[in-house]
Design goal:
Length: 265
């Protein structure tokens, strides 16, 4: 979805070693930089310190974004975000700019944030993680502890909610969601449920959204529509994991009993 609004800036993606060669090749067709990062590498002194805190492994992976020092400024997006409109204006903001979290607005949501790559900052946050951990066990708790002045700092570092709208929590603010929907720039499918985990009918290209998430059915369908139009044809069966599985979908074709059973897994 990043390419669709025509961004003026380069795109970079961080990938773990487990990402297949076939997937990396596809990513290189989309992103300007495909950078591999290791979760825990015993050859790296900073990573070695985190071996004593294995629960922070995934969190540490996200911190690698500060090592993209070939760039002066970056906007980080979680992999479960969906860009709906051009958001280049975010580069006018300074570190650390982020939108409030819907569950506790005095904290920012770390799914979208503006930052300045720096090896010094990377080292400081890594050391902070070793010493203090994270109050929620993830990167959001860690980053809110490190950038603990966000709630009371320059208001310019508070991004409007339209840059990080929690898709599945929209029922909590449904009237406002309906009022400002056309202004939403970035959707965030935060939480355990993801669009790609929802049952999908490949014959009519329809997501079968569970009743309890009916308020977000059109958002889930939007994700699948973008996937069908822009991503599916790029997937091959030699890709590992979910990508390889999704490559098996036969869009628009009448499903065989075997295909129906496969899609219900």
């Amino acid at each position: 979805s990043l390419r669709r609004p025509g961004p003026a800036h380069q795109l970079a993606v961080l990938v773990p070693p487990a990402v297949s060669a076939a997937m990396r090749q596809r990513l290189q067709d989309v992103y300007n930089v495909v950078q591999e990062v290791n979760v825990l590498d015993s050859q790296d002194a900073a990573n070695l310190a985190l071996l004593a805190r294995p629960e922070l492994g995934v969190t540490f992976t996200k911190l690698h974004c500060w090592r993209l020092v070939q760039f002066e400024k970056c906007v980080f997006l979680d992999a479960d975000t969906l860009v709906l409109q051009n958001s280049d204006e975010l580069f006018e903001r300074e570190e650390l700019s982020a939108a409030p979290d819907v569950s506790w607005p005095d904290c920012f949501n770390s799914g979208v944030f503006v930052y300045r790559p720096s090896l010094e900052t990377f080292a400081k946050i890594t050391q902070f993680a070793v010493e203090h951990g994270s109050f929620d066990g993830g990167d959001q708790g860690l980053l809110n502890l490190y950038f603990d002045d966000w709630a009371q700092s320059d208001i310019k570092k508070h991004l409007p909610f339209i840059y990080n709208v929690a898709a599945f929590a929209s029922y909590c603010y449904l009237p406002a969601f309906k009022q400002f929907r056309d202004k939403i720039k970035i959707l965030h499918f935060a939480g355990k449920l993801k669009p790609w985990l929802i049952q999908f009918n490949s014959e009519n290209r329809t997501a079968l959204t569970p009743t309890e998430y009916a308020h977000a059915a059109d958002l889930i369908q939007l994700w699948w529509s973008i996937f069908c139009d822009n991503v599916h044809q790029q997937l091959t069966d030699d890709m590992a994991g979910l990508a390889g599985a999704l490559s098996q979908l036969r869009l628009g074709e009448q499903r065989t009993p075997e295909q129906e059973a496969y899609e219900q897994l």
